[in-house]
TrEMBL record, chain B:
Superkingdom of the organism of origin: Bacteria
Protein name, as recorded: Ion-translocating oxidoreductase complex subunit B
Lineage summary: Bacteria, Pseudomonadati, Pseudomonadota, Gammaproteobacteria, Oceanospirillales
Protein source organism: Halomonas citrativorans
InterPro entries xref list: 4Fe-4S_dom (IPR007202), 4Fe4S_Fe-S-bd (IPR017896), 4Fe4S_Fe_S_CS (IPR017900), Elect_transpt_cplx_RnfB/RsxB (IPR010207), RnfB/RsxB_Proteobac (IPR016463), RnfB_subfamily (IPR050294)
4Fe-4S domain residues: 38-96
Length: 557, 202
């Protein structure tokens, strides 16, 4: 047990985890068809690399990652590729389940670049819910020094037990995976943060803990309280380090991983198995065989739930994720994705519909439970009034959307809905502002290019005239050259243009050094604009010099 | 006692302070002359509030020239793509009265789309595009880069075969987030309430 530091706030919702932990881990039947969305992770959607009619096997690459923050998608059944569109790839299973895995690697003897490449080409993403590509997270060492790897096994949301069952069944493999990631990111210690409501998992870990090598592993059992499974709150609790606002755990030297992710990372390296299946908790009063299942990605939720004995008569709604942060599904005809950790088929009595909202009575209950130390009530007013400046100054983007404020609200105000809506609006505004800025730069570049072309044309015309009529050049120069150019002001303009180019180059170089992974299109456009301006100034100056020189040359003889 | 008010003391104090004043004044003057920027900060601020579609509907060739004109006293209401929001932002910035929009605000964000089968490759639209968002060459098919298009309409009129349409901008899936949350789902411990009218978040 580490020091009992604590985060503020938190609530104690009913856990209701027993329903899915009583039965052992099972394997869902092989689906006859899978639908694999191209965006099962955070970041850009993957690009399909198969076509209709192609034969694929389990683990065949079907969509390649696009850009840095993206992940590969693999076939999860063997069979024929059906419909391929911009959202998803459909595969009809042939029932053979033949495999196409990558060659196994021993992570203790393999070098880091090979391991990173393996994580990249296995499509492993964070299985806790955010779906952040694991190979990027492992590469964080290029930007930050990491000393601690935290295994986030708190699993504080009610109902969900996938991490619990993972640890009960595969404690060795999870620790092995943790050692692999720790070795990749240079962490010297591993801390397992687990809530005290999982005694079986804790016992299994304590049994295997002494054998884990080489990083030191500590088991930290923390009291059950929602939302201790949130990254920031768990790090505060275990290490007393505060992740900065808008920052990442890596800023304080910590990397946080879910046990399922570690397991998937180990399988990708040790067995060469890409991410083709995951553990999903199926629970709720409306199914007869609740429990945890290994499910192939892309399996239809409807098929899965009917396998677990869905009673349509008793079902009121299906929730994807936990009851606090999850979303109600509009339709069951949707596939299991890499980030699907739990499906709750709830009866009306179990999770009744939200009561009618009443006005805020300013009781302040939300403020005392907020784990992020925000002022939910103020945010509520500002979000409804669309007061964007105030929302930003009250740190709306530090809200982790845990739902504790909505849970305690005596007026049943859907506070988190308001915050999500406001966040979405602000993000949209940012995107629009960036777009406008981009258009402005392109417009300026075009103006500069046109000016340069005009100057070039003038220079050519003058040269041609001077060439054709060398005898009466004096008169022609007078008539053709554009408004008599002042040499001094042109020279100043040229110097200013040179300085602008140098400045743009410097800004671009600095940005490229600080964020080598990001594209810097806008800065490149700015640099190109400055260069065009410089060229135009050069031409104008040369032209003015010519016209200034020409008459004097005529006069002297 | 008399030392304190001696003539020398007073004169030297005045001298030192005057010297300091002249010295720092000269320094400040030299620095402001040396690092003088030629751009107008207020024009930049106005320009930042404009939508940068470069459509020219205000009668000026682009957003920057309109920003300069507004700074010199032109009306605030000449920007249809910006709509009421831009007029209010400009009025706030400049301390003027907001005026009703001169023209009709577009109902949604559009982008140009070239029906490629009908394009004759005349390059007239390429020359009209203020942000270089159309690619193509003479007697070759042209097409619009959707991400770069500002929806300014300027390419529609020059087209001799009317093959350019203004279509709604497509939204990438990643930028669309539904607000669906099971509010108060663990409410079984409270008194069950009947479902009232849906309260949509504003």
């Amino acid at each position: 047990m580490l020091h009992p530091f604590d985060f503020p706030g938190g609530i104690y919702p009913p856990e209701r985890k027993d329903r899915s932990t009583l039965s052992p881990l099972r394997r869902a039947p092989l689906p006859s068809q899978v639908i694999l969305p191209l965006c099962q992770h955070s970041g850009r959607p993957a690009t399909p690399c198969v076509a209709r009619g192609d034969h694929v096997r389990v683990g065949s690459l079907i969509a390649k990652r696009d850009g840095l923050i993206s992940a590969d998608v693999h076939a999860t059944v063997s069979g024929t590729v059906g419909h391929v569109d911009s959202d998803a790839i459909h595969i009809d299973s042939d029932g053979q389940d033949t495999r196409q895995y990558l060659p196994p690697l021993d992570w203790r003897t393999t070098d880091a670049p090979t391991l990173l490449m393996r994580l990249d080409e296995s499509g492993v993403v964070g299985l806790g819910g955010a779906g952040f590509p694991t190979h990027i997270k492992a590469r964080v060492i290029e930007w930050h020094a990491i000393d601690t790897l935290v295994i986030n096994a708190a699993e504080c949301e009610p109902y969900i037990t996938a991490d619990d069952l993972t640890l009960r069944n595969y404690p060795n493999d999870v620790l092995e995976g943790a050692q692999l990631i720790a070795a990749l990111c240079g962490a010297q210690q591993i801390i397992i943060g687990i809530e005290d409501n999982k005694p079986e998992a804790i016992a299994a870990l304590e049994h295997t803990l002494p054998d884990s090598q080489p990083a030191r592993v500590t088991l930290a059992v923390i009291p059950t309280r929602y939302p201790s499974g949130s990254e920031r709150q768990l790090i505060k609790k275990l290490l007393n380090r505060t992740v900065p606002s808008q920052g990442l755990p890596a800023d304080v030297g910590v990397l946080c991983h879910n046990p399922g992710t570690l397991l998937a990372a180990l399988y990708a390296v040790r067995d060469g198995q890409p991410l083709v299946e995951r553990m999903v908790t199926l629970t709720g009063e409306a199914i007869t065989q609740p429990g945890n299942y290994w499910v192939r990605l892309g399996t239809s939720i409807e098929t899965l739930l009917s396998h677990a004995g869905l009673d349509n008569a008793r079902l009121s709604r299906v929730i994807l994720g936990g009851p606090m942060m999850g979303t109600s599904l509009e339709t069951l005809n949707t596939p299991v994705k890499k980030t699907t950790n739990c499906l709750i088929a709830a009866t009306p009595d179990e999770l009744p519909p939200a009561p009618v909202e009443s006005p805020c009575i300013r009781c302040g209950a939300c403020e005392s439970v907020c784990p992020a130390q925000l002022l939910p009530q103020q945010l509520h007013w500002y979000a409804r009034a669309q007061d964007d400046d105030k929302l930003t100054s009250h740190h709306l983007f530090d809200c982790i959307e845990c739902g504790a404020c909505s849970y305690v609200c005596p007026s049943h105000i859907p506070l988190v809905d308001d915050y999500r809506d406001a966040k979405r609006r602000l993000r949209y505004q940012q995107i629009e502002a960036a777009k406008a800025e981009h258009a402005k730069h392109r417009f300026e570049f075009r103006q500069a290019r046109l000016a340069r072309e005009e100057a070039e044309k003038q220079a050519r015309r003058q040269a041609r005239l001077a060439h054709n009529k060398p005898t009466d050049g004096n008169a022609s120069n007078e008539s053709t050259s554009a408004p008599p150019a002042d040499l001094r002001s042109l020279r100043i303009a040229q110097t200013a243009a040179k300085a602008a180019v140098r400045k743009a180059e410097k800004v671009l170089a600095r940005a490229a050094q600080q964020e080598p992974q990001q594209p810097h299109e806008d800065l490149e456009t700015l640099l190109a604009t400055a260069q065009e301006n410089l060229k135009a100034a050069d031409f104008q100056l040369a032209q003015a010099r010519e016209s200034a020189k020409a008459p004097t040359a005529e006069d002297t003889p | 006692m008399s030392d304190t008010f001696s003539l020398w003391g007073i004169v030297s104090a005045i001298g030192i302070l005057t010297g300091l004043g002249v010295g720092f004044g000269a320094l400040l003057g030299a620095v402001s002359e040396r690092f003088k920027g030629d751009e107008h900060p207020l024009v930049d601020q106005i320009d930042a509030l404009l939508p940068q579609t470069q459509c020219g509907q205000c009668g000026y060739p682009g957003c920057r020239p309109y920003a300069e004109a507004v700074n010199e006293g032109d009306a605030l209401n000449k920007c249809p793509p910006g709509g009421e929001a831009t007029i209010h932002a400009l009025a706030d910035l400049l301390g003027r009265e907001p005026e009703p929009l001169d023209g009709e605000a577009p109902s949604e964000a559009n982008v140009a789309y070239i029906r490629e089968a009908e394009c004759i490759g005349c390059t007239k639209c390429i020359q009209a595009c203020p942000v270089d968002a159309i690619i193509g060459a003479a007697k070759q098919m042209h097409t619009v880069i959707e991400d770069e298009c500002t929806g300014c309409d300027l390419c529609v009129d020059p087209c001799p075969v009317d093959c350019i349409d203004m279509l709604p901008r497509s939204t990438p899936l990643g930028q669309w987030q539904p607000v669906v949350l099971p509010t108060g789902v663990i409410a079984s411990d409270r008194t069950p309430a009947t479902r009232g009218p849906d309260v949509t978040p504003i």
